[in-house]
Amino acid sequence: MEKIKNFPTIEFDPYGDLKLVVYNYDGPSVLVVSSKAMSLACDPWRVMLGPEAKFSEAQPEHSKIIPLPEDDPVALSILLHIVHLQFDQVPSKLEFDDFVEMAMLTDKYQATKLVAPWVPNWIWEVSCLAKREGFEKWLWIAWEFGVTMSFETVASRLVLESSTNDEGKCLTSVGEVVVEDMPSDIVENVLEVRKATIDRLLEIAYYHVNHFTHPNTLFFCRASRNNQACDALFYGSLIKELQRCRLGPDRKEASEIFMSVKELAQKLKTLELFVYPSDTSVNGNHGECSWSRWISTRVDKVLREIPSAVTDSHRRHLSAQELKCKSKG
């Protein structure tokens, strides 16, 4: 490792026996800390730094300097202020990105209880962002600090509004790839629920196409006259509309649908379908021939019945984390 004497240095303990090297946009920095204070703070640090530690970091030749290239410097510094009892240095509020990094760091080091006294205020400052586009990483905050309602809210929004790219990656409503280091397979669950929902919507989209292409099909039109002409108008406009929505002429599978559930549902509900003019005296009564309402009603039903991407396992974890944040000991 390159010499650290010229790196910017922050002393959490002026008599500290350990130097942590962290990295930010400006380059590396050195944090002088007490290994004893850190080892008492949480189990992973105790394992890494305690007197009986078997990890190489605790061996004499390595005990003075430990590089932590993956740890966020801001979040780590806040944790170190806490473990060194410098509570006046702990911010009363966090920017969203810093809060996400804190959630990921306390998850990594099992240090949830360390920050518990500050969590309610931190959450209050950014709680409104859970429902906004571009803040999908709220999942990390909710996951780590047991905010079940927000976790469910963000996951449900991803199911409804996420799209996919050619590689099958989950995209946010603004087209950004959802990072793969989201907590505990939630993105995979979102994609599974999204696919199942699109399958159901496609069944609605192709229901009438399947009917018309069946060799023994009966007329959809139930008017007394011009049944064939009415069905031809309906079928022709349906095929044209499906093509406009990029759902035809060939039938699509869910894996070929890149748009979001929300967008697909809206397209199906606004299909412009034509039937024969209704004139009971000449053409017969075709007032009931339009299937637009039928399609819209069933699309709404599918949307109401979208299952949650959050599992019982997720909820048990969230409940346990909530208790940690409320625990006094």
Summary, kept brief:
By secondary structure, the protein is an alpha/beta fold. The chain contains 13 helices and six strands. The protein is elongated, with a radius of gyration of 29 Å.
Helix content: 40-55%
Query: Any low-confidence stretches, pLDDT <50, length ≥5?
Result: 55-59
Q: What is the tally of helical segments?
A: 13
Q: Give the topology string: H per helix, E per strand.
A: EEEHHEHHHHHHEEHHHHH
Strand content: 5-15%
Enumerate the strands of the largest sheet in spatial order, edge to edge or round the barrel.
1-3-2-4
State the end-to-end CA separation: 40 Å
Secondary-structure-based class equals alpha/beta
Overall shape: it is elongated
The major pleated sheet works out as: 4 strands, mixed
Radius of gyration: 29 Å
Q: What is the count of β-strands?
A: 6
Give the integer mean of the pLDDT values. Answer: 86
